[in-house]
Amino acid sequence: MPPTLTPLNTIQNVRLLGRDSTWDIVISPDSPSIITSVTPHQNPDSDKCSPLALPALTHPHIHLDKAFIHNSPDYAHLLPATGSFAEALSFTAKAKQLFTHDDLHKRGEWLLAGSVAAGVTAMRAFVEVDHTVNLTCLEAGIALKEEWKEACAVQIVSFAQDPIFSTEYGEVNRWLMEDAVIRPQVDVIGTTPYVEVTMGAAKQNIRWAIERALEYNKHVDFHLDYNLDAGKEALVWFVLSTLKEKGWTVHFTDKRVMLGHCTRLTLFKDEEWELLAKEIRDNDLPVSFVGLPTSDMYMASPSSKSHDRPRGTLQVLEMINKHGLDAVVGINNVGNAFTPWGSEDPLSLASLGVGLYQAGTTADAELLYKCVSTRARAAIGLSPSEASLTLSQGDRADILLFHDVDDTGCNISRPRHGVAGIVWDPPAKISRDVVVAGRLKTSCALCPRTAYRFA
């Protein structure tokens, strides 16, 4: 069940990024979602280590209905045998035949509970709609969205994993999606163009999603260009041309476009990246990219088992720093055949990014934190723009506090300094306190907080 949340007026004696001494964060009871003021703390206790306060975390792309299939005994017969993408598609299709509302609710709560404990207060959650599950996943997702709304803002994506313009089930899949996307609880239309049988059908898929998103005022989110084949057309260009054709700009709508995976783009040359960035910038297209490295590194590879097995995932930091593109990173799947490794903690991705992107500076660490926090929240349209990591007056009162605790059982605690220390070696969840809209999530009784006070 959702956690107990206790309203706060003040969070006292915390450290803030880039500021000396310690500070008190004041939250007005009249506007509990907003920080009213940030003032110097008087008479700090120099013998205690005050926690670092940072903006809370965000999942910009995660599958709610397929989470933790491997943790449920109902699916023990569907553990990976070859680890291939084809097998993941096949085994997940078989698992979906067994989905029930109760099962989806249980596994969804596992994901929500673990995510909130890690510091996630917002997520974009994909739930599948097709001839196998009908609207069961969507209905379970909507129920979880309502039940957990005080602890986490859940954006529901009505998601067509299966074809909607090809195969014998394409038409019924599309009818079900048409029914789903008109629901007010659905925030995003999501599709997977690359599963269509032909390139023509893939483009129909893209055009349909963009047209429906504009018609019903929804965000749109594509699983796109998930291959490492230079001989295949990169559909990102068709997405951009269709957005331009339909007039989807930052001036026309506040809804955004997200492109996920896009491993084919890792084969782009500099001039292609520059053209892509220019197309987006010159046409005011509200487009963001989400790299999904735990899935991409596992799945996006040629089928050959030779020693020459390149892996592909978007170079997110280079896209931001070199090309000026909007990009973030996300978990995608956890505990299923598409991604049997990794956890629901976004900081594990930020840490992975240090090695993946050869990003070892403190500035890199801060950008990686933003990619699972303030940048991610803005990319999915839950904030108008990216916020600073230094909390200040007027910021959201969604706050994650990191402190030094003994998580070893040896009466020893090891400090981590600044954002870099947290990204390089993420502390355990028991070292974190989560504040959601000015309310404190009940902390672990084993971890007393003595360096600072709530009021």
TrEMBL record:
Residues 54-402 form the Amidohydrolase-related domain. Pfam families: Amidohydro_1. It comes from the Eukaryota. Transmembrane segments: none annotated. One of its GO terms (molecular function) is hydrolase activity, acting on carbon-nitrogen (but not peptide) bonds, in cyclic amidines. Coiled coil: none annotated. Keywords: Hydrolase. InterPro entries: Amidohydro-rel (IPR006680), Metal_Hydrolase (IPR032466), Metallo-hydrolase_Enzymes (IPR052349). SUPFAM superfamilies: Metallo-dependent hydrolases. This is Metallo-dependent hydrolase. It comes from Aspergillus ibericus CBS 121593.
